[in-house]
Design brief:
- This protein has a domain of 182 residues: MetI-like fold (Orthogonal Bundle), CATH 1.10.3720.
- A hairpin with a 3-residue loop joins strand 1 and strand 2.
- Helix 5 packs across helix 8 and helix 7 crosses helix 8.
- The protein is globular and about 85 Å long.
- The protein is mainly α.
- Strands 1-2 form a two-stranded antiparallel ribbon.
């Protein structure tokens, strides 16, 4: 098991170096950073002095090593647009994005598993057919259209929920802000969380349904029925547990996708998170923010994949035996 963890950790380091190379290439090939920092009337001597101070005249390998070392210390430089450290800008907006992403992921996982199990066990019922129709809608419609429709229905027509912003927030620990402790914050979170998690929910539901139907046809389920075990024990103690192995993979990867692609949802609902900051950075060619966001998303994907691999052994005993051998 220890050898497996070390091997996966080394693979993660290699992946992060590759992501770092892509982020570093943005500084070299997506415009000149010096041109973003000086005006058109700046003397050439001042431009050359700034270029030397930034180390842009050093060899490429030296610049890449410096970039990786600074990134490991969470130093991504100064934003061209905001004239503030990029790390500070991301830290201010990270709580909003993470709160939205984890809420959407929790909604997708819980509702998706419940709907998938019910659709598999009662596949001929009317409610199961309704769930199937909902899953088709969730997979087919784009995220921005779902958000607009929810805003039109629940904010414009019914007036039940706010259509933009994060609502009132509370500061915890001096820097972390959350809207989960206020009524307006909870109300503001509902629509964007459903919008962001709907696609993942339908994906998990269809996966759980397909895996559950497959597991229910296996020999050990038939043997469990022959032994006279209760139906609830067979469904949830045996069938569902074996169904969760692929679900863990999908749910883990989708969590990274939710964080990475929350940009659309944050734009539709004007949610003050990292995705909206990244969109502004793309519009203004703010390369430090773009590179830092890319590195952050790469790190999240690598970390989640490692956790998912380790979680396999907790669900499937066969994997624990294979890892020990």
């Amino acid at each position: 098991m220890l050898a497996f963890v070390i091997r996966r950790f080394l693979q993660s380091v290699v992946v992060m170096l590759a992501v770092g190379l892509i982020a570093f290439a943005m500084f070299r090939f997506v415009g000149d950073p010096v041109n973003q920092m000086v005006g058109v009337d700046t003397p050439q001597a001042e431009v050359e002095r700034l270029r030397a101070a930034l180390g842009l005249n050093d060899p490429m390998l030296v610049q890449f090593g410096r970039f990786i070392l600074n990134a490991a210390q969470l130093d991504f430089g100064i934003s061209y647009q905001f004239r503030q450290p990029v790390t500070r800008l991301l830290a201010e907006r990270a709580p909003a994005t993470l709160e939205l992403a984890f809420t959407a992921a929790g909604f997708a996982l819980v509702v998706g598993v419940l709907m998938g199990v019910y659709s598999a066990l009662r596949r001929d019922s009317v409610l199961a057919r309704v769930f199937q129709a909902v899953s088709l809608v969730g997979v087919s419609l784009p995220t921005f259209l779902i958000g607009i429709l929810l805003i039109y229905l629940f904010a414009v027509q019914l007036g039940w929920l706010p259509s933009n912003g994060r609502g009132e927030t509370v500061t915890l620990g001096g820097w972390w802000t959350t809207g989960l402790l206020t009524r307006s914050g909870l109300r503001a979170l509902i629509l964007p969380a459903i919008t962001l998690g709907l696609f993942q929910m339908t994906l998990i539901m269809r996966l759980v349904r397909a895996e559950m139907l497959e597991v229910m046809r296996t020999d050990y389920i038939k043997f469990a029925r022959a032994r006279g075990l209760r139906t609830r024990v067979i469904h949830f103690g045996h069938a569902l547990k074996n169904t969760l192995v692929p679900v863990i993979t999908i749910a883990g990867l989708q969590l990274g996708s939710i964080i990475a692609f929350a940009i659309i949802t944050e734009t539709v609902f004007n949610w003050p998170g990292m995705g909206l900051l990244f969109l502004k950075a793309v519009h203004n060619v703010d390369i430090p923010i773009m590179a830092a966001y890319l590195m952050l998303i790469g790190f999240l994907f690598v970390t989640i994949n490692l956790i998912v691999d380790l979680a396999y052994g907790l669900v499937d005993p066969r994997l624990r035996i294979a890892l020990r051998s």
